[in-house]
Specification:
single chain; 167 residues; alpha/beta; 5-stranded parallel β-sheet; 7 helices
């Protein structure tokens, strides 16, 4: 159903969830683990998640899709870590970076090739992207998806944002 121009903000139908700096709470610590002679999987084993965000995502009726710039080669350990740490909640689907390209290009390809054909175009489906990367948020805006970063530090949301009518 196409949204009217003057509709009020609405709850999203689909949430595109960034992984590394959105779902992961301690992404800023990555440099302590990655490199330095350690495999990248050592970092994955240290990732902690934003519990307040997981609680909100657990309650939403929206379909939550993980869309990450992380390489497909780390899919298995990343998904295993989420299964171990997220208390039974998981995104409905996980889309990893198939071409090892930059985040905006990887996520645009996932949207255009895999997500929009399945869930509908932004003109017909209310998408909310929870996205840390400013360049990726700009890309989402260009393709008609409302994107916002999550709060950092001690600030948290009490509810997920609505999708503006003009998104």
């Amino acid at each position: 159903m196409q949204r009217e121009l003057f509709d009020m903000p609405e709850s999203p139908d689909v949430i595109l969830l960034d992984y590394v700096a959105t779902l992961v709470a301690n992404g800023h610590e990555r440099s302590k683990y990655a490199g330095r002679g350690r495999p990248y999987t050592a970092w994955i084993e240290q990732e902690r998640y934003r519990e307040w965000l997981v609680a909100l995502l657990r309650q939403t009726p929206a379909k939550v899709l993980l869309v990450t710039a992380r390489s497909q080669k780390y899919r298995e350990p990343t998904v295993a870590r989420m299964r171990e740490q997220l208390g039974g909640w998981m995104p409905a689907e996980c889309y990893f970076n198939l071409a090892d390209c930059q985040p905006p290009e990887a996520k645009r390809a996932a949207c255009e090739q895999l997500i929009f054909p399945k869930y509908g175009l932004p003109a017909d489906t209310k998408y909310l992207a929870l996205e840390s990367n400013a360049s990726t948020r700009a890309m989402y805006a260009r393709i008609g998806v409302y994107a916002t970063p999550v709060p950092y530090g001690r600030q948290v949301w009490s509810e997920l944002p609505a999708v503006p009518a003009c998104a």
